[in-house]
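Reopening this one. Same input as before:
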Amino acid sequence: KVNVRITADVTVNVGANAEGLIQNSVASIVAGADETLTKGYEFGIGITKNGTTYARLYLRGAKDASRILVQKTKDIPGTDDGVIVAGTSYRLSMGIYDGRIQCFINDKLVMSFEDSTYVSGFCGIKTAWSTSVFDNVSIERIEEKVVSSIEIRNAPAQISRLGELTFDAVVTYQ
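Same output, byte for byte:
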C-alpha cells in the first residue's frame, strides 16, 4: 500500500530546448512510481510557454492512462497573489493514504483527489525543460492510526446566518 508523504522545497525556472526556444517547464515530486518515474503520481509546479503558471496533480502511466487529475492556474493556495512565480522556492508536499492524494504548497492544501491506480511504488523528484532546484527532500511513511475518541469543543448552538459552523475537534489516537 502507498501510505507515504514526500516533501521538498522546489523552485521552477523557465527552461529552453537545445535551439533556445522557451518550453513548458515543470518541477514535480513523485510517489507511487515505477523505478524510472515514468508511472505514478506527480505533484508539480510549472510555467507554460506563454507564461501561465500552474500547480498540477498528474497521473503518469501508459499513453492511454496519463492525464491531469487536478490543475489550478490561479488562486493557488500557499502562493503570493495566487500564482507560481519563476525562481521562487515553494515547499511542496504530497501525501497518499488509502487512495486519497493530498497536495500542499507551503503547508496550504491545494488539491485533494481519490485514486487507487498505483498502490505501491517509489518516490522521487522530476523536472522537464527547466533548471529547477530541489532542496530538503524528505520521504516518510504515514502510519495507520486508530481513533479512540473525538471530542467537539466550542460548538455553537446554531449555524450562523452565513451558513457557517465553527468548532474545535480534538481527536485522540490509540
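So the earlier flakiness isn't reproducible anymore. For the record, Residues 118 and 135 are 26 Å apart (CA to CA).
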